[in-house]
Amino acid sequence: MQNLKVLALAGSPVDHFGADLSRVYATGFVDAFRGLTGYQVEVAYVSPDGSWRFLSGLHEDEIAAAQEVSLSDAVGYIQARRYDVIVPEMFCLPGMTAYRSLFDVIGVPYLGNRADVMALTADKHLTRLVAAAAGVTVPAGEVLRAGEKYTGELPVVVKPADSDNSMGVALVREDSDMDLAIADALLYSDSALVETYVPLGREVRCGIIVRDGELVCLPLEEYAVDEQTHPIRARADKLDRTSEGQLYLVAKESTKAWIVDVDDPVTEAVWAAARRAHVALGCRHYSLFDFRVDPDGVPWFLEAGLYCSYSPSSVIAVMASAAGITVDELFAIGVREIAHEKAR
């Protein structure tokens, strides 16, 4: 079988944190697929200064040794290599939007959602509005900018309107804590989303893949939260660094997250809401949504996180594995969807 020529795009033109996070996921994908028959995997890395490098791996010494090239030279190289598919592994806003648009312009297919969908879902409030209009249950919320005050009822969850990984997220139960929570959220965004707190319940994430044009819901992943001692997930529940400064994924620890049995009564209700959100937001290939489940079993939409690195540790890959779909099968399903889109 002829090798599928794949380019994994990693890094970040914004900051070193974004670049490190990208490398964590992209390394998992590259390591998993490099040894598989039928794939020729290469890597492009974008540094925080905006320069590009083309290389075979993502270890720090490999990046440092690779030759820097300009954006225009990088585009020429990508076109000359005639890749079959690009896997975007960038998690900063330009990586989710501008770089995907670039591939649309030069006509190289990529796995994952389009730039316009990524731009929409990066704005948590706009995403909520679209989901609510589609009939998905969403907590009440409002957006505040610097100098504006919240005058509604408590408790609420305050978060940056367009930041990920629980940066600047706080549960506010007392009026005296509100100004500090908003100020902290505004460190990461131009606006803060103040959202009515949904009592626990449970907190779950739902993944969907598109297979042969049909939406396939995957087993839910549940997260360790507790109404009394740990009511919301914080940054420390998701990411941390080793003593040597290397970023790693705390959320993959079995005490932090686990797969929910598909026979669990919560599953069907969450799946139904996720399908509505997927269609309303215009997702393709896959989608991923966070839900808060109240004590009555009602799922409340929190946000979309439309990422899949096709690393074995990526959330959708973990969910797919629980459904008996290996990571290479998951990747092949996405590639087939690209072929179907071309045919249509």
From TrEMBL:
<dbReference type="GO" id="GO:0016874">
    <property type="term" value="F:ligase activity"/>
</dbReference>
<dbReference type="InterPro" id="IPR013815">
    <property type="entry name" value="ATP_grasp_subdomain_1"/>
</dbReference>
<dbReference type="Pfam" id="PF07478">
    <property type="entry name" value="Dala_Dala_lig_C"/>
</dbReference>
<keyword id="KW-0547">Nucleotide-binding</keyword>
<protein>
    <submittedName>
        <fullName>D-alanine--D-alanine ligase</fullName>
    </submittedName>
</protein>
<dbReference type="InterPro" id="IPR011095">
    <property type="entry name" value="Dala_Dala_lig_C"/>
</dbReference>
<comment type="similarity">
    <text>Belongs to the D-alanine--D-alanine ligase family.</text>
</comment>
<keyword id="KW-0436">Ligase</keyword>
<feature type="domain" description="ATP-grasp">
    <location>
        <begin position="128"/>
        <end position="336"/>
    </location>
</feature>
<dbReference type="InterPro" id="IPR011761">
    <property type="entry name" value="ATP-grasp"/>
</dbReference>
<keyword id="KW-0067">ATP-binding</keyword>
